[in-house]
Structures are given as structure tokens and as C-alpha cells.
Design brief:
Layout lengths: L1 H10 L1 H11 L2 H5 L4 H9 L1 H14 L4 H31 L1 H4 L3
Length: about 100
């Protein structure tokens, strides 16, 4: 079951974080309110998921935990770069797609 959740976390981190938030108390133990996990699901799902996995079992994290979180930030940044690049590439191929009405 753990491997199935790991595959879900890699391919659909927003869905994995949502399931983790709904069906376990881990996300509520890490964050004090609902606001930060919701922002994490919207803008930085890998970072939020990694933060939950690093902080929930141990409490305050060490160097290796922060290294994992920094790698997750880089994955999220790459995702945002790919979205930006694909949008500009689509606008170059289809000029009407990039035009705003």
C-alpha cells in the first residue's frame, strides 16, 4: 500500500496531499490551520508534501530534511518554468492562443 501511495505522490502530488489531508491527521499535526496546506496544494504540491513527510515524524527537521525540502522546491520551480515555457511556445505556434481578448 505504501508503494501505491508513493506512485500517487510522484504522478499526482496534489491528489496525494489531498488524500493525506483528508484521511490522516498528519497534515493537521504539521500545520496549525487549513490555509497553508491549501496554498501548498495550489502552488507548491511537491514542497508541501515533502515538508509533511519530513516534519511529521520527527518534529523540527535537520540538514537532510531541509535538503529534501530544497529539492522539492526545485521540482516545483521546474514545474512552473515548464508551464511558462509551454505557454510561450504555444503562443509562438498559435498566435491567437497567446492573445488576450
Amino acid at each position: 500500500m505504501g508503494c501505491l501511495f508513493a506512485m500517487l505522490a510522484v504522478f499526482a502530488p496534489r491528489l496525494a496531499l489531498f488524500f493525506l489531508w483528508i484521511f490522516t491527521p498528519i497534515v493537521n499535526a504539521v500545520f496549525n490551520s487549513w490555509f497553508w496546506p491549501l496554498l501548498g496544494i495550489i502552488f507548491a504540491p511537491f514542497t508541501t508534501l515533502m515538508y509533511v513527510f519530513v516534519v511529521a515524524p520527527l518534529g523540527p527537521t535537520n540538514f537532510w530534511g531541509w535538503l529534501c525540502i530544497i529539492l522539492a522546491v526545485l521540482v516545483d520551480a521546474r514545474n512552473w518554468y515548464d508551464v511558462y515555457h509551454n505557454r510561450s511556445a504555444t503562443a509562438a505556434v498559435f498566435p491567437a492562443a497567446g492573445a488576450t481578448q
